[in-house]
Write a structure and sequence with these properties.
By secondary structure, this protein is an alpha/beta fold. Helix content is about 45%, strand content about 15%. It has helices at about 1-15, 35-50, 65-75, 95-100, 115-120, 140-155, 175-190, 205-215, 230-235, 255-260, 275-285, 290-295, 310-315, 330-335, 350, and strands spanning about 20-30, 55-60, 85, 105-110, 130-140, 165-170, 195-200, 220-225, 245-250, 265-270, 295-300, 305. Strands 2-1-3-4-5-11 form a six-stranded parallel sheet. The chain has a six-stranded mixed sheet with strand order 7-6-8-9-10-12, sandwiched between helices. It is globular. About 45% of the residues are buried.
Length: about 350
């Protein structure tokens, strides 16, 4: 047994030593304790540990001015990292990217949060900003449509004619792309959207807005939310959850638990892996792979969890240690692939060979 253990540890040691050490700064755009971004950060820390990456974290506190200030402070007073991984805030992208250009730091952005004139100003990766390696994102329109499909299907399966309201995050960028997917789905299926309200990603505000929506539209039985936290607000704001089909985005633990109990209908997610996956692309880049020399983006697909497939994901409810995820399975150098296969379905129980 000791001999086998020595061989296993030796293989791990050889693998780690083959990865050249480097440093990454992850800019967490939210606050400490945010249930979604805390998960993103925890998974990134696992990927970093597995690949000999020195990972530092700063927080944007949910505010573009604070994020820019913290990034400036870090670059001014700390050792310059080899790479930065961040999510750009609308209205602050150009300033952040100018700062990274000034310090000559290569960076990857998460999610496509910048649109319109601001997107036109910053351009595409590797154009105006040569140090912008690329972006890793998912299609929010497609995801919003997928959530709509799950909620409408759930409503019809309950024998109800759907009457829909929507709770969005904020005006613009990814939240509106999600709700545009909802609107397109409803239009294709000749269904009406009574109203969209904005709750600023806040559970408390979603509770208040839900109560007002139900008073205004008493026939409401489908509540589409742009985040799981706001879906929890909708869940709290209704008097009898059995009369509603509700869901959101992010795969939060509480929401998955409520789906299992058939109290919520759906949650779209998987993007909590994006920072960890970004680190894997940097490991490949550091070790000579030319993906980011020939490409400027990676689009990842999300999945929708409902009562029908919760058995494949329910183990995620109680996960506190993500070290069971082998990030090396995603590396191009190890797998001799031409493009990344960042598929959240790789975390399905049957794909991980977990005990069923």
């Amino acid at each position: 047994m000791k001999r086998y253990l020595f061989i296993i540890l030796s293989c791990i040691s050889l693998h780690l030593s083959a990865v050249e050490p480097f440093s990454v700064l992850f800019v967490n755009p939210s606050v400490k304790g945010d249930p979604f971004w805390e998960k993103v950060q925890s998974i990134a820390e696992v990927a970093a540990k597995q690949n000999n990456i020195s990972l530092d974290v700063i927080y944007g506190e949910g505010n573009r001015y604070i994020q820019l200030s913290e990034l400036n402070k870090y670059l001014q007073y700390r050792a310059t990292p080899d790479y930065v991984v961040l999510l750009n805030y609308p209205g602050g992208a150009e300033q952040s990217m100018n700062l990274l250009k000034q310090y000559n730091v290569n960076f990857i952005t998460l999610e496509q949060t910048i649109t319109g004139d601001e997107r036109g100003s910053i351009g595409e990766p590797q154009a105006r900003y040569k140090n912008w390696l690329g972006e890793i994102y998912h299609d929010n329109f497609k995801a919003g449509r997928g959530l709509a499909d799950a909620l409408i299907t759930h409503s019809k399966n309950q024998g109800r004619q759907p009457h829909v309201v929507a709770i969005n995050g904020h005006y613009g960028t990814e939240s509106d792309a999600r709700s545009d997917g909802l609107k397109a789905y409803l239009a294709d299926n000749k269904l009406q959207l009574s109203q969209t309200v904005y709750a600023g990603w806040s559970k408390l505000e979603a509770i208040t807005k839900t109560k007002k929506l139900i008073q205004r539209y008493p026939k409401t039985n489908v509540i589409w939310s742009a985040s799981d936290l706001m879906a929890l607000g909708a869940y709290t704001g209704v008097s009898n959850v059995k009369n509603y089909s509700m869901g959101g985005f992010d795969w939060l633990k509480d929401n998955l638990r409520l789906i299992k109990q058939d109290k919520l209908a759906a949650s779209v997610g998987g993007h909590f892996m994006m920072a960890g996956w970004a680190l894997i692309t940097l490991v490949d880049l550091r070790n000579g792979h030319d993906y980011w020399k020939n490409n400027t983006n990676i689009e990842i697909d999300l999945d929708v969890i409902t009562k029908d497939n919760i058995n494949q994901y329910e183990y995620l409810i109680d996960v506190n240690n993500w070290s069971f995820v082998d990030f090396n399975r995603y590396r191009l150098l190890d797998n001799e692939q031409l493009s990344y296969r960042f598929d959240i379905k790789s975390l399905r129980k049957d794909n991980l060979n977990l005990e069923k």
